[in-house]
């Protein structure tokens, strides 16, 4: 049965308004990044009176954006790799084996998502400072400490998500690999992991995006040397002026890795997020 004509027009109008609502901030960012600072600081204009690429050049000298970019890339990349590796082994064990405390472990992993991250800020700060004073291992103000911090809230979700995905992978694959002479570890790496690529990619994208744009912990746990992009963007606001055009340009530049990765891995991400919904 064909949809009523009124429904088709209503849908078109609704989708047009929704697209405009989503794209309007993007247009403001792009247009503001192409304006001189005087135009951005004055009354807003929908069409720039003068187009310039100078803000995209100045963003690298106003603040050490390249250093912040490298810090974010190292921290987000390391947190992603650690989350994926640990989550794969933990989720596979929960999905395939029965052991004492299995249910308690699963519920505990999920329950950690109920607590806001700010509750862990002060305990982690004190823990890192005390560890540094006692052992000389500098976790506070280091990339390693920030990576461990990001694991505290990306790893539980990653484990829980992969448990559901591994449950949807037929156990016959494991059994066939074991019959062919593979051990449990080899069966996981050579058989189960390739079948679970969409779920693993979804976990990796989630972990990377979480670490890439995190502000709260990065603003406390880093210093001038280890500062990340999310915190470094504040450097465009000084006591004398706010470089709005450079802020917009820098925001677009730092969004490129996340947007590009999301577009390239979109089909895996959708498959991974919907895995296990239908048995």
UniProtKB/TrEMBL annotation:
It is a multi-pass membrane protein. SUPFAM superfamilies: MetI-like. It is found in: Cell membrane. The chain crosses the membrane at residues 12-30, 68-92, 104-127, 147-166, 187-209, 243-265. Its main location: membrane. CDD domains: TM_PBP2. It holds the Pfam family BPD_transp_1. Residues 69-265 form the ABC transmembrane type-1 domain. Keywords: Cell membrane, Membrane, Transmembrane, Transmembrane helix, Transport. It comes from the Bacteria. Coiled coil: none annotated. The keyword Transport applies. Belongs to the binding-protein-dependent transport system permease family. This is Carbohydrate ABC transporter permease. The lineage of its organism: Bacteria, Bacillati, Actinomycetota, Actinomycetes, Kitasatosporales.
């Amino acid at each position: 049965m064909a949809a009523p004509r009124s429904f088709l027009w209503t849908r078109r109008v609704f989708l047009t308004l929704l697209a405009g609502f989503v794209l309007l901030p993007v247009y403001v960012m792009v247009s503001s990044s192409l304006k001189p600072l005087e135009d951005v600081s004055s009354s807003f204009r929908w069409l720039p009176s003068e187009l310039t690429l100078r803000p995209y050049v100045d963003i690298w000298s106003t603040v050490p954006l390249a250093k912040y970019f490298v810090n974010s890339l190292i921290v987000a990349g390391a947190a992603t790799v650690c989350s994926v590796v640990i989550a794969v082994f933990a989720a596979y064990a929960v999905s395939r084996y029965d052991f004492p405390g299995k249910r308690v472990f699963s519920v505990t992993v999920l329950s950690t998502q109920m607590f806001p991250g700010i509750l862990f800020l002060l305990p982690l700060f004190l823990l890192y400072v005390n560890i540094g004073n006692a052992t000389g291992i500098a976790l506070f103000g280091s990339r390693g400490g920030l990576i461990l911090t990001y694991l505290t809230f990306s790893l539980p979700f990653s484990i829980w998500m992969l448990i559901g995905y591994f449950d949807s992978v037929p156990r016959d694959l494991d059994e066939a690999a074991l019959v062919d002479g593979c051990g449990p570890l080899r069966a996981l790496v050579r058989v189960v992991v390739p079948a679970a690529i969409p779920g693993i990619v979804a976990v990796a994208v989630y972990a990377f995006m979480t670490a890439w744009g995190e502000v709260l912990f990065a603003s406390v746990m880093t210093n001038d040397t280890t500062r990340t992009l999310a915190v470094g963007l504040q450097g465009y606001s000084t006591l004398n002026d706010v470089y709005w055009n450079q802020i917009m340009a820098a925001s677009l530049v730092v969004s490129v890795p996340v947007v590009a990765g999301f577009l390239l891995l979109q089909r895996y991400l959708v498959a991974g997020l919907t895995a296990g919904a239908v048995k």
